Amino acid sequence: MDNEKDEVSKENDIKKTNEEIKDDKINEQNVDNEKCDTKENNNEEVDFNNEQDKNKEFEKHEEANIEDKQDEEENIVDDEIKNKNRKKFFICIFIALIILIISIFVTSSKYENKVYPNIFIYDESMAKLNESQLDKELLNIENKIRKSKIYIKTTDTEYVVDIKDFIKDYKNKYIKDKVFKYGKKQNKVKQFADIIMGGKKIFKFNCDLNEDGIKEIIQKIAKQTNKKCEEPKAIIERDIIKYNEGKEGLKLDENSLYKNLVGAIKNKNITTSIKIDADYKKDIPKINMLDLKKVDSKISSYSTNYGGGGGRGKNIEVSVKKLDDTIVMPGEEFSYEKAIGPVTIENGYTYAPVIINKTLQSGVGGGVCQVSSTVYNAQLKAGILPTERRNHTIPSNYVPRGLDATLATGSIDYKFRNTYNYPIIINSYTSNGNIYIEFWSNKEALNGIEYKPVSYVSGRVANTYLYGYDKNGKKVYEKHIDTSVYK
Fold first, then answer.
1. Is residue 281 domain-shared with residue 424, that is, in the same domain?
2. H or E segment to which residue 94 belongs
3. Is 404 part of a structural domain of the chain?
4. pLDDT tens digit string along 389-436?
5. What is the mean pLDDT of residues 22-39?
6. For residue 154, what are the contacts with CB-CB under 8 A and spacing of at least 6?
7. Number of domains in the chain
8. Do 129 and 274 fall into the same domain?
9. Is the pTM of this model over 0.70?
């Protein structure tokens, strides 16, 4: 029984399974049918959408074509407008050029016989003046210059001079040609540019200067305002040396003042007064105090007798005083004429017997040659040779023949050069009718040598030698100095 039941149940299960399979197939077939329906529906929708897109594209294309046609029509209109404007522009340019050309020729012609605008002489406008008007204006300017002054400021005063004193010729014709012809040699376009747009052009008188007048005022100012330096001095009194310090001075810079005056006249507005500052330079002493203090000893001396009194005695005393404390620096040349001169009445000298044409005659300064001869002997005893020396035509009685030294103002001088490395101070004085000349320097100057001048006389001729002896009396130096011939 149980077996039968089991078989029946199996059969039932098989039936159920077959039915389920059947149902599943039916369901799958339904699903496939649904899918097919959906596909068909989708295809229909796609086709519809495509049709709509195509219609839209066609409409857009049509609209674009319409817009292009409108743009083409607008471009054609714009081109026509541009062409018209271009023609108008070129016509305007052409007309402007014609007007400009006419203006150029009219304007340049207008100033053919007139001075250009913006032309000045100093601060005076010459614009639009014709030739005769320009002549009058130039004379007016010249008159203004004649009334102008230059103020020269110095260290402590002010000099006022008339500008006209420095001018020889105002050269009006020269300045007139420059002003009147300015710009007229250019082409018409440049002329027009100068007339219309030219900047301010200033002309100045190109005067011929009075060089002598300028130099004269400069020399006058220098003479009156220069403050000469004071050289250091060594004053010898009774074998004692006293020193005075030097002092700086001021000296007008004459070259600078000359340039400033000329520059002012040529470059500044001389229709009005001008102020100039004069420049000064320091005038520094030539002698160095330290060098001067190296002088410590008397190295030579010589004296002659003149008797004193009279015009001759006065001339000797004047020249001795002028010679006293003269400093001759190393390498410097001493000039007797410069030291005591000029030998004139104004300089303190008087009339006394002098040798003129081999005879004694009265003349200014008689006696000064005795002083120069005394100096000459002191110089030789200092071991120094002359650089210029002449003997008298007639032998002198105050020194041996061959040892005199004459002076003729302006033609014959007596000179020597300091060959030592130390300064030489000439100490000179008179006492009891005697002239005393001393040479002072450093004690090492002679290097221990004693010098003696000797003159050998034969008739009217004297040959002079200088000998040097060491401390043992041995001759270490010999030099022929000069040959003197007397009448």
1. no
2. helix 2-110
3. yes
4. 999 999 999 999 999 999 998 899 999 999 999 999 999 999 999 999
5. 44
6. 221, 225, 252, 278, 280
7. 3
8. yes
9. no
